[in-house]
């Protein structure tokens, strides 16, 4: 099975005065198509930093990230942003929906930014709102949606460009247990039906245990957390 995400020798350092804070130190990672990979670890270990590097939101101090064989940090900022918009989906702990737009408009907007035809963007958005079970709520703004519905819209937005990988940062961390479990069921259903690849940062051990692999981030590197 081919690797969708490959990271090699990732280093990420931050300078604070005359001190250097080493977050990632020579980290390697391979994620195969259709895998669900959980990344766990203590707060401050660098999990969100890792996701930002894998998706090209931040640059490493050193190292490479290849998405579908493309070395993203050899690209200039503009082309990399366009590539990221097409090939990487994001789901955050807080949904980051635009409050003035409806659920449908929140999903359509990134597609229009990617210069997709309006009719196709709306068709695609409705397809994925239906897939996550909130199609009937497409005309509602976020304030009229429940927390679980808002996260489902965020998942639909992440999926709508049909990306190579979805990067999820504590996707259920802001939800009650029952709603979180429902969202987890949805993610694995989408993995099963669509073959969607997920890399999930989580403190939720139940979510991590359902993934294909669980990796622990510690000491700036990843370690297998289960056989």
Please explain how this structure is put together.
The chain contains seven helices and ten strands. With 227 residues, the protein is α/β, with parallel strands linked by helices.
Backbone CA Rg: 17 Å
Provide the helix percentage: 25-40%
**What's the average pLDDT?**
90
In this structure, how is the largest beta sheet organized?
A: 6 strands, mixed
Question: Segments where pLDDT lies below 50 for 5+ residues?
Answer: none
How large is the count of helical segments? 7
Strand-residue proportion: 25-35%
Order of SSEs, N→C? EEEHEEHEHHHEHEHEE
Strand order of the largest sheet: 6-7-8-3-9-10
Instruction: Please state the structural category.
Output: alpha/beta
Q: What is the tally of beta strands?
A: 10
Distance between the first and last residues' Cα: 19 Å
Using the alpha-carbon principal axes, give the shape: globular
